[in-house]
Automatic annotation (TrEMBL):
Family membership: Belongs to the pyrroline-5-carboxylate reductase family.
Source organism of this protein record: Flavobacterium limnosediminis JC2902
Recorded GO CC terms: cytoplasm
The Pyrroline-5-carboxylate reductase catalytic N-terminal domain, residue ranges: 2-97
Reaction catalyzed: L-proline + NADP(+) = (S)-1-pyrroline-5-carboxylate + NADPH + 2 H(+); L-proline + NAD(+) = (S)-1-pyrroline-5-carboxylate + NADH + 2 H(+)
Function field: Catalyzes the reduction of 1-pyrroline-5-carboxylate (PCA) to L-proline.
Domain Pyrroline-5-carboxylate reductase dimerisation, residue spans: 160-264
Gene Ontology annotations of biological process type: L-proline biosynthetic process
Protein's pathway: Amino-acid biosynthesis; L-proline biosynthesis; L-proline from L-glutamate 5-semialdehyde: step 1/1
Binding site for NADP(+): 6-11, 68-71
Protein name: Pyrroline-5-carboxylate reductase
Record EC number: 1.5.1.2
One Pfam family from the record: F420_oxidored
Any one GO molecular-function label of the UniProt entry: pyrroline-5-carboxylate reductase activity
Length: 266
């Protein structure tokens, strides 16, 4: 199977790396289009000749074309791509917001899969939610899901609106986690820890908590109750979160991301 990746930034590189490392796709079967020439290390064993700056005739030989540019760059890409795609090819988009309908219109392609991965795909622990146009048959969907699963876990949704919702939850989600970590590190420093000590305390707390959660079937509420002793320190901190409506703030932020995904699709 041959794959073209348009846009070799954070996500384009992540995808190429996952496909190659999982041995699902051979490095020589990947074509990359970007304005920038990557370093040798970034090429991941893909032959230098397979890196091109514009979509060209070699595209008609590929089975899947992955759109990994920013939504704002899609129009320019689609202009070049439109005339090169043939009927059997699958277009797989990871762009935030851009709808299946828009991708179909702008690429003249009926076989479109729209997905929302996250950056954690870099270490094979990503979360991807995907949906497909009616012309994608079961076999196509199976191939795509196998490909996506080289980057982590995936779920298929019929309702395309859930791709925007996933963008706001799991797509942008890693940044929310890093934001929370950054805030805790800052507080730890204010309490007297050095920057590296603060980072260790917070990293280990996150890694440990997630692994603990995964090792048992208790809910988040149950875990909170196990940590927060009556009249103790955690309870005092949680009172501050509640008094400042932190849950509402987080919900508002996620809704804002969802709104932005919808705007990007217009
Ligand atoms: N960064 C993330 O965590 C996630 C990003 N996404 C989506 O993935 C897409 C890419 O995001 P990133 O990789 O973070 O962006 P990026 O900015 O790191 O990479 C985009 C690449 O596209 C290239 N590019 C721009 N115009 C081009 C053109 N006309 N032809 C060929 N290449 C062109 C740029 O040179 C750049 O290397 C976006 O649509 C974003 O919504 C989805 C999930 C997570
Ligand atoms: O911020 C963005 O628009 C992209 C989509 C999800 C993560 N990054």
């Amino acid at each position: 199977m041959k794959i073209a990746i348009i846009g070799y930034g954070n996500m384009g590189k992540t995808y190429a790396g996952s496909f190659i490392n999982s041995r699902f796709i051979k490095a020589e079967d990947i074509i990359v289009v970007d304005r920038f020439t990557p370093t040798e290390k970034e090429m991941l064993g893909i032959p230098a000749a397979n890196f091109i700056s514009e979509v060209n005739d070699s595209f008609s030989e590929t089975d899947i074309v992955i759109l990994a540019v920013k939504p704002q760059d899609f129009e320019a890409v689609s202009e070049k791509l439109k005339s090169k795609l043939t009927d059997g090819q699958i277009v797989l988009s990871i762009m935030a917001g851009v709808t299946i309908r828009t991708i179909q219109k702008m690429t003249n392609s009926l076989k479109v899969v729209r997905s929302m991965p996250n950056i954690v795909s870099q270490i094979g622990m990503g979360m991807t939610v995907f949906s497909a146009s009616p012309d994608i048959d079961r076999k196509d969907l199976f191939i795509i899901q196998n490909l996506l699963n080289t980057t982590g876990k995936s779920i298929y949704v019929d309702n395309e609106k859930l791709i925007d919702a996933a963008t706001a939850v799991s797509g942008s989600g890693p940044a929310y986690v890093f934001y929370f970590m950054k805030s805790m590190i800052k507080a730890a420093e204010q309490l007297g820890f050095s920057a590296s000590e603060a980072e260790l305390l917070v990293n280990q707390t996150f890694i440990g908590s997630i692994n603990l959660k995964n090792a048992n079937s208790f809910s988040n509420e149950e875990w909170i109750a196990k940590v927060a002793s009556k009249g103790g320190t955690t309870e005092r901190a949680l009172e501050v979160f509640d008094a400042l409506s932190t849950e509402d703030i987080i919900a508002k932020a996620v809704m804002a991301a969802n709104e932005r995904a919808l705007e990007l699709g217009v």
